[in-house]
Amino acid sequence: MTELKVCYFDIDGTLVGKNGAISQDVLAAIRDLHRRGILVGVASGRPWFSACEIATQIETTAPCMTFSGAFINERKSGTVHYESPLSAADAGQVVALAEEHGWYLELYDRSQYYVSQRTEISDIHTEYMETPPEEARLSEVLSKGSEHPIVKSVFAFQGEIPAGALEEISARTENTAIAVAYGAAHPDLHFVNVVDQAADRSVALKRLCALLDCSPEQMMAFGDGESDIPFLSQVQWGVAMGNAKECVQEAASHVAPSVEESGIAGFLESFFSE
């Protein structure tokens, strides 16, 4: 069997369940990975400033991918291996779409995120992010330019995404990658992540392999969202959580119990006992 070299974890709905915490069983399973000499990293749509506490908790030893693939860095040294912000033109189109349709939008730079006004959605998202957004005119946020480039933008919708929304975002922006995720504790809340096209997660996986001097055949990845499919479908052991949608489970090579059942721990126990 191919040797497992590195294991990547999505955060919300994978490591972290409805209570916002990693279970003790999962933490113990990850400590066992460390003892076995297997590298550990996070691969998440969260911004680094929100993911870093989780990365510290599981003591990541591999480069971490956050901002939906737009940012790759080292937890301990702080070394940034890669960053790909949205172009000014595409960021402008995203803001214009939000204003035209009244869609809820968040803009992220490396250190914080912004909304035009606080809403029920922003209050819910604050629970996940563990930090509130800054209220600001989004056009003024864009005017900061190269000093504070927008690394990621996120539309959020209560219930189903409006018909044609994804197609319109794609048509109005020139160089973007679009991925859909949903809230682990609020499955009716849909997030549409918009990043630079060069930050596509399939490309991010290749960058991580180059940094680690390994191939996808030496990697394991856990995830629950549609945005995790590029990892789950390309690594040797792509593990969808039991709470993942059917399309995610079909794209993976394995299915673990749900996050609420400490599915990561159960899967890894079975994996190493074979």
Helices and strands, in N-to-C order?
A: EHEHEEEHEEHEHEHEEHEHEHEH
Looking at CATH, which topology of the largest domain would you report?
Rossmann fold
Second-tier CATH architecture of the largest domain: 3-Layer(aba) Sandwich
The CATH C-level name of the largest domain is Alpha Beta
CATH superfamily caption of the largest domain = HAD superfamily/HAD-like
Largest sheet: 6 strands, mixed
Radius of gyration (CA) equals 18 Å
The total beta strand count reads 14
- The percentage helix is 25-40%
The averaged pLDDT comes out at 94
Describe this structure in words.
The protein has 274 residues and is α/β, with parallel strands linked by helices. The chain has two domains: 6-84 and 199-273, HAD superfamily/HAD-like (Rossmann fold, 3-Layer(aba) Sandwich), CATH 3.40.50.1000; 88-198, 2-Layer Sandwich (Hypothetical Protein, Haloacid Dehalogenase-like Hydrolase, Chain: A, domain 2). It is 34% helix and 22% strand. It is built from ten helices and 14 strands. The chain has helices at residues 24-35, 48-57, 88-101, 120-129, 138-142, 165-172, 201-212, 229-234, 246-251, 263-273; strands at residues 6-9, 39-42, 64-66, 71-73, 80-83, 104-108, 113-115, 134-135, 152-158, 176-182, 189-196, 219-223, 237-240, 254-255. Strands 8-7-6-9-11-10 form a six-stranded mixed sheet, covered by helices on one side. A five-stranded parallel sheet has the order 2-1-12-13-14. Strands 3-4-5 form a three-stranded antiparallel sheet, covered by helices on one side. A hairpin with a 6-residue loop joins strand 10 (176-182) and strand 11 (189-196). Helix 1 packs parallel to helix 10 (263-273). The model has no long low-confidence stretch (mean pLDDT 94).
